[in-house]
Amino acid sequence: MQKALLFLAILFSTLLYSQGDPFNFDLEWSTYFYCPEGGNISILDSAIDDNHNLYITGGITNSCDTFPDNDPLYHFHGMQDAYIAKFNPSGEPEWFKYYGGSDTDLAKSIEIVNNHIYLGGRIGSMDSSLNFNNTYAGNGDGFVSKLTLDGEVLWSTYIGGEGSDAVDAIAVNDEGEIFVVGYSTSHTGLGTPNTFQPENMVNGTNRSGFIAQIDAAGNKVWASYYGEHTNGFLRSIAVSETGIYVMGIDMSHQAGNYYGTPGSHKENTGTDIDNFIARFSFKGDRIWGTYFGGSGNENNITPFTIVTFGNKVYFCGYTNSPTDIATPGAQQEFIGGGGSMFLTSMDDGGNVIWSTYAGIKDPSIVSSYIGNSLNIDDFGNLYLSGITNLSGLATSDSFKNAITLYDHDAFVTKYSAQGEMLWGTYFGGTDIDSGGQVHVFDNSFIFTGYSYNENLATSGAFLETLNPNGGGYNDIIVKFGLPRLGIDEQNKTHFVVLPNPADHFIKIYASEVIKEVVLYDLLGKLILSSSFMNETQMVLDLSHLMKGTYLLKVITENGSQAKKVIKR
Predict the structure, then answer these.
(1) pLDDT digit string, tens, across residues 42-56
(2) Are residues 27 and 47 in the same domain?
(3) So which residues are the signal peptide here (predicted)?
(4) Which residue range forms the structural domain that includes residue 344?
(5) Contact call for residues 519 and 551 (beta carbons, < 8 A)
(6) Is the Cβ–Cβ distance between 304 and 275 less than 8 Å?
(7) For every residue of 292-355, which 3-state class applies, written as one string?
(8) Tens digits of per-residue pLDDT, 138-185?
(9) Is residue 506 helix, strand or coil?
C-alpha cells in the first residue's frame, strides 16, 4: 500500500509540474574545477557581474600553476588561502588570485554590487595580503573585504573579539553598506550598545550567532549577538528597503521562545529542530522573529536559503514534518514519503503568504541529505537548487527528467513568485552530484556544485576529466543557455513565421491568442519584447536589425515556443 501511494504521489506531482513554462535550455558548457598540481580546493560561494562573468570563492591549500595567475601580490601564502577565480561567459578562466597569510584563511561569501566585489569569511593569519584597516584580535576573526572587479583589494576589516569568529554570509545594498551573519565565541570586542543583544549569552567557548553592519568605508557600525543556547546557528542573510532578514536553525533541542516574538507565525518551539527567521532594523533592533517548522525536524545547511523581492521574503529548507508547512492549495500540499524540501513566502510582517513542499522521498531511503540554495530573478521568479534524491523536481521536457532510486543528483527548479513550479531539471550521473548556488541572467542560468561522476564536462572545457590525483569528489561549474531550437522545430509548433529568412517584415500566425513576443540575439541579449491582446496574427518589423540569426519566442495562454528567425 505504501509503494502504491508513493507511485500515485509521484504521478500526481509529474502531472502537476508539467503545466508551467517549457525548459528551453541547452547545456552550453560544463567544467570540473580542481588543482591538477594537488591539494584541496573548495567552491563555497559564487557571484555574477553585469557582463555575466562568474566569480567563485572558497579555500585552497596549494599553489596551482594551471590557473592564470600573474599578480605577484596575490600569490599562494600559507597553509590555506582564500581565493577568487574569474570565469568569462564561455567558461574560460580569466584570473585566479590568492588572499591570506601564513595560517589558515577561508572565504565563505561573495557579492558583486555596483562593479565591486565584496568578500566575507574567516582569517587566521596576522600577515594577510588583504590590506586590513584595523587590528587582528586573535584566535581567528571574521573579515569583510571590498575589491575591484580585477581582484585588487581596496580595504578589509576584521570582525570579532578575543575568541573565535567567522563571517558566514554577507549582503550588500546599493549604497555599499554590508550586512553580515556569522558565529562567535567572543565575549568582548564584538557586540555594540543599543542593539538587540549587545552581550554574548552563550556560556564558555560555545558559539553564538551574530549580525553586524559595516559601512561603505569598511568600519563596523554595529553588531548584535543572536543566540541563547549552543547549537543555534545563523545561516543566511538578505537585505531589502524594509530591513535585514536572517535565517538559521535551532538545534538546541530545548523548548523555548527566544527566536519567536509575540503574535508571530510560530512563537514557541519544542524539543525538535526548527528553522527561525527574523527581521532586523538598520540599527540592529529585532522587529520580529519566528520559528518555522512542524511536528518533525527542519534544517537548512547552506548560506543561500533566504532572498527578498519588494516587501516579500522567500526562504527554503528541508523538513520531515507532515503538518504546519504547506498552505492550502499549494503547489505540493502533502509531504509524501516522509521527507521533502520546502519553499515559503512571507510578507515583511512575518506572515506566511504561501508555502509548499518540493519533492517526494521514497520511504525505503533511510537517509536523505539535502543541501539547497535559493535565488531570484528580476521578475520575482525563484530558483531552487542543490543535491537531492527526491523525485518530482523535474519537468518532462528538461535536460534530465528522472532520478534513479538511491541516486543523488544536482537539480535546478524554477518557481513563480506565487509558488507555482514552472520547470525543473536534474543534472548528474550514476554517483553523487550536488548543485550549489544558481545564477539566472538573460536566457541562461549557471550553477556550481560537486560530483563524483565522470563524463560531466563538455568537450573543450577548462578541465574535462576528473582529478587524476583522486581525492573523491570534484567541484563543477555548469551553464545552460539558449533555447533548444533543434528539438522544438522537429515538433509540431503552435505558430508559423513567414517569410523566413526575411528582409524587412515577418508575419506570425498562431493557433492560439498571442500574449507576448520576445526576440533575442544569439548571445541571449533581449532585442525587443511586445505584448498583445486577443490576436492570433501579427507583423514584426525587422528592418532596423543587423543581418543575422535571431531567436523568436512566442508566448500564448497555454505555453511558449521558440524558433530561429534569419534577417537578410
Answers:
(1) 999 999 999 999 999
(2) no
(3) 1-18
(4) 1-33+252-276+297-481
(5) yes
(6) no
(7) ECCCCCEECCCCCCEEEECCEEEEEEEECCCCCCCCCCCCCCCCCCCCEEEEEEEECCCCEEEE
(8) 899 999 999 999 999 999 999 999 999 999 999 999 999 999 999 999
(9) strand
